[in-house]
Amino acid sequence: MASSQGPVSSTGAKLGVKTSKAMPRVPTKSYTEMLFEFSDGKGYDISSIQAAENNTKITLDPDYQMRWEITLGASIKQQCGSITDRTHYIARIPKGFTLIFDPKKGERHVVGHPGGMGRDFWYHNVGEFAPHALWLAAPAPYDRSKCSCEPCKKMLGKPKAKESKKPAQKRKQPAASTSTPNTTASRPSAPTTTAPTTTPAAATAATAAAPATTAAAATAAPPAAPAAVALKIAANAEKPVAPAPAKPPAKPAAKPAVARPPTPPPPVEDHSIYRAGEVVWYGTQTGIWRIGLILSRARETTETDTWVVAPLGHKILNQESSVKPAAQMRPFHAFSLPGIDIQELQESAFAEVDWPAFVHRYAGSNAHKQQLVGLEASKMAARDVNVSFSTFNRLGAITPDGRRGSYGGIFLGPEMIRVGDAVRVTRLIGEQDGSPDIMEIKHIVDDEDCLQPKFHGDVWRSQIVPLEAPEQSSQPQGVDLVRQIQITNEVLRHQGGRLDWFLVETDAERVEADVRGRFYVTFDLLPDVKASLMEGNPFDDGTQRVNARLRPDKPFYIGRKENRRATFGDSASLDMLDLGPNVVEG
Questions:
Q1: Model-level pTM?
Q2: Which PANTHER family does the UniProt record give (predicted)?
């Protein structure tokens, strides 16, 4: 991969947004350009793609390409950059690959893989393409078996992940949804996305979570920083979000009466973004990121945000827990989960493996091989946890027969989510650009079949508006959403603008597949954003930099577990797991 030495003009470049004259001047942001010296792209022409898909509406998408390339640059930096690297990169799409747009489905894809022009060889988002980009950037020879992107696997005939033993439940769309959400960002980084390496769970950039990035060591180092190129980005100049319509959308056909869930007690105030029982990434002394389980707080003080973290793997490996400050931790969705490198394990769930026998056969007494087994086991355990859930603090029944319950909280995959929390959800109303909306949860209940959870609450969307714009009459009450506004506006007012929450849906419902994960206050997740704003750069709320939980209609879905200990099984030593006095599971 090479760096461009000449300036790149951004005159007339669009990022799929419109500039409002009422908005304050958008500052200039400098980017270093990344170029790929090698590419295996085939450069399929658009007419051939249209003919293959029998869809003449498919078009090239040069207007969106710059935004896509900026995201790819952030992804590569996340995997190859250092903590001290404050350079912003724009990674140009390699020669022979093309960004296309399908207006029928509102989806963007990258085509050009030598396997063919059919959909099986399309990249549906940056997270799917990043592993291939890193493989292209690696030194020759180019052994395709070392590339872990899905199209390369299909081209080589590698087996697909085993289908779930449990049939997927059909998704019920709310009546308000009039179009299919854009999957450019609504399908980010399934846990099978990997980088081309045999050393899992290694990442060197610790300052920001890029969309669909993989916590795996890249085989190619980032290019030396050349003279930065000026590039104007109208990131803040999005179309204002209209307040919720006065007339509610049409409601679906009447269903049998369901009791309103009882109102839970207010959540306990928590000064940290981390919670006991959550899966996180944590930094090691060697600079590698590992996957761990938070067992408990190390100190119960409001000044020290420190946790006891147990490595995921298998308890027979006797991996020791460690005390980690929050500064050395990242939420699980901050990085993508690397794929399984040992072929024998690729089609198995964690619980299906006879780990003592496998460790004896594969590693014996070899300490290095035992460590590799532990890394593979940690990825498998994290993947299975990611597609599981368990509830806690049952508040009562919502149906006469008592089957369906209401809960004060849920362990949804790697995260603990409580009533009153804010979560990232699929956008069902308005512009379908792949961005999530934010739901402030009021109720968590069982679905009609008691197989999956449902979430109820108000749905919000943030928008930067001019400082003099009228204030919204309704505002969320949740701690995180209030903090997001307060901290952001401390800086934005100096730029002539402010961040507002716009109410999009009231008393909305989202099924499990629509919930991408917890919402994190930008400045907790990305500490450098405030300094960047002070320098005059556009605001980045970070929501598209965080991965989504694996959808429950994907392979390996597990679903409900009895409690958190049952979810982790033998993947960690759970003797010291302490969820706190306010968590009653079941």
A1: 0.58
A2: CRYPTIC LOCI REGULATOR 2
